[in-house]
Design goal:
By secondary structure, the chain is of the alpha/beta class. The protein is 47% helix and 16% strand. The protein has eleven helices and ten strands. β1 and β2 (18-23) form a beta hairpin. The structure holds ligand T3D.
Length: 266
């Protein structure tokens, strides 16, 4: 079976030591569903098991990188039985940890808007390149949630607590140039140059000293004090409670109705 037939929400290709993984639900801005998580899990296991692969590129199809969780998905519909903590534990924490655990360099090619967990999955990658028209938004507060998918761990480490709090509390969109100046991304390039630039860097890394890269990643990740797992666990517990709040119910309803939410702090 070819890769195009095997996956419905992602595309996967590999050539010359470089694997390319494309989030592929452009009509929904490549937002995450359970199927996409399952397909990503399988693709990342495949990358991890193939010693000929020496660099991974993660990007999005169409005008977005990823809009985070698909808010239309039945599985996350606000209600008494909703358990976002379980969703985070089953899907988002394994995805973030799998990206971090890969011994090969992982490059995010952020081709458009990266929102919510979509932004934080990009920050889980080792190098982030962004198209000049791309943007980043911690969209969580707009729907009554807090950053997850490692956001509370990545953001203060990348930009410091003040900017992390500004991004998380205000939920404003920042453009790629500002993201680069803040250190959220390694390089911002003209839109047409994004994939040629990333592919050239990936090709260079794929013929580089694989073992040294793996050790470099391991040591740099270890040097960042405080465990990612602990932050993921805390996010799960806090987000689980927020998923049962009236503000989340209102936030999702307002998003669907394309109106401003009326939060009551409940
Ligand atoms: O279980 C859990 O919930 C836990 C996990 C949480 C992780 C999270 O990621 S929570 C955060 C979820 N994401 C968001 O809140 C982002 C929602 N989207 C937006 O704020 C905006 O769409 C963007 C800022 C990303 C882009 O804005 P814009 O103006 O460029 O595009 P748009 O018109 O808003 O969106 C285009 C279409 O995509 C639109 O559909 P339509 O009207 O053409 O039929 C929109 O509804 C749809 N879309 C965008 N984001 C999502 C989505 N549909 C479902 N889920 C989305 N996240």
């Amino acid at each position: 079976m070819s890769d195009a037939q095997a996956y419905t929400t992602i595309e996967f290709s590999a050539a010359d030591g470089v694997a390319e993984l494309t989030l592929n639900r452009p009509a929904r801005l490549n937002s995450f569903t359970a199927t996409m998580h399952a397909e990503l899990r399988g693709a990342l296991q495949r990358v991890a098991a193939d010693p000929t692969l020496r660099c991974l590129v993660l990007t999005g199809a169409g005008r977005a990188f990823c809009a985070g969780q698909d808010l239309d998905d039945e599985a996350v519909r606000p209600g008494p039985d909703l358990d976002i903590g379980r969703t985070l534990e089953r899907h988002y924490a394994p995805l973030v940890l799998a990206l971090r655990a890969l011994p090969l360099p992982v490059i995010a090619a952020v081709n458009g808007v990266a929102a919510g967990a979509g932004a934080n999955v990009a920050f889980a990658c080792d190098l982030v390149y962004a198209a000049r028209s791309a943007s980043f938004i911690q969209a969580f507060a707009k729907i009554g949630l807090m950053p997850d998918a490692g956001g509370t761990w990545f953001l203060p480490r990348l930009v410091g607590p003040q900017r992390a709090l500004g991004l998380a509390l205000l939920g404003e969109r920042i453009d790629a140039a500002r993201a680069e100046s803040w250190g959220l991304v390694w390089q911002c390039v003209d839109d047409a140059e994004l994939m040629p630039t990333v592919r050239a860097v990936a090709a260079r890394l794929a013929v580089g000293p694989t073992r040294a890269y793996a050790s470099t990643k391991q040591a740099i990740h270890a040097a960042t004090a405080g465990s990612l797992q602990a932050s993921l666990d805390l996010e799960r517990d806090l987000q689980r409670a927020l998923g049962r709040s009236e503000d989340f119910r209102e936030g999702v309803a307002a998003f669907a109705a394309k109106r401003a939410p009326q939060f009551r702090g409940a």
